[in-house]
Amino acid sequence: MNDGIHNLDQADPLCRMGAAELADAYRSGSVSPVDVARACLARAEQIDPVFNAFTFLDHEGALEAAKASEARWAGGAPLSAVDGVPATIKDIVWVKGWPARFGSLVTGDEPLAEDAPSVRLMRAAGIVFLGQTTTPEFGWKAVTDSNAFGITRNPHNPDMTSGGSSGGAAIAAALGAGVFHLGSDGGGSIRIPSSFCGITGIKPTFTRVPAYPASAFGTVAHIGPMCRNARDTSVMLTAMSGRDRRDWNQGEGNLAPLEDLTSTIRGSRIGYWTVPPAGKVDAEVAALVDSQMNKLEAAGASVEPFELPATDLLETFHIHWFSGAAARLAPYGPAEREKIDPGLLEIAEKGAAYDARTLVAAQVARAEFGAKMDMALADFDFILSPAVTIPAFGAGLEVPAGSGLERWTEWASFSFPINLTQQPAGVVPGGKTADGLPVGLQIVGARGQDAKVLSFMDAIEGIAG
User: What value does the mean pLDDT take over residues 348-361?
Assistant: First the structure.
């Protein structure tokens, strides 16, 4: 596919510029934030009829913000180095003046009165918000389709899924409709679409990015950045991180500030995780990731096999996730439930049937697993794995046709364990299948060591071609 819609290289050059390049151009006056916003809005309109990445575009708001940014740069007083950089926001995160539909027919379309903490921080940095990206209903599954907004499709092959639940964000990143893309990740929802769409994203350490309102899915849910490369991902994560007292989970202590990237591979101790807690790894995915590991060893890394220090993780995660689904749907009656995704209703019904002892036992099992993973990251610098067990499959399906799988969690089993542990986990491109579908490589680090993970992601991008 080389028609300019599916190919980033044929997008407007302004749509292909990264954050640092834009800052230099804004500073010199060779490029205006207004021109960039217009180009990215036009790109979004061009790609959306095919890929369905957006719920709406805020032309008026984006151009107003871009004009204000242009004036600040002209006066030598930008709010930050990312002032005027265009961004998108996933349709589960509050933006003042926008609705938050959560990909659902049962939510209202009233404009919100305040920004979520991550959006507030980005707005304070002068970032320009282009529009809202698609998600499955309430972000419940790792593919992106909904009764409210339809099916979101893969930029490398529109017959295939983009992954989810931050599927629209991944497409916007891959095809040049903005530089920064805010996603969320409760079981892989940043990392899975990053892998399927061939971009970079990170689920940061839990509470690195403040969140409000609190997610019904609890403390497995993270907010994070999705971009075309690790450097932009790092810059965006810095802009959206900070303290916000609306997020009680953050506590009074702050995570250490993110440091500049200091890429290094030689001497790194890597645990190579190849056996997921559910499902089987596709042979082509395994071969591509093995190839990347060989490159890392050739570059001076030490690689050892790694196995997860727990069993029954699928059930542990299901109890957390399905209980959250039950809580999320609790306000809706029979008439509203007729409009809700049947798969979401199914897991909510299972979640509502758990008793208190079952939920507490799962929480205890999670704590024990998390402690063991913290100990493992004292022995390794990073744990690496495939991002997803399989390449992208048919759009509009929760599991591959004919696979015999029942739920998305069975093929997303390299991702959801790291939501249980709250550790930072990033994804970088790791090659393509014979059919041209991207495969991602996951990098897991110790809690709080987001900068170290991002540095390693940047280093891998340098050798992964």
Answer: 98
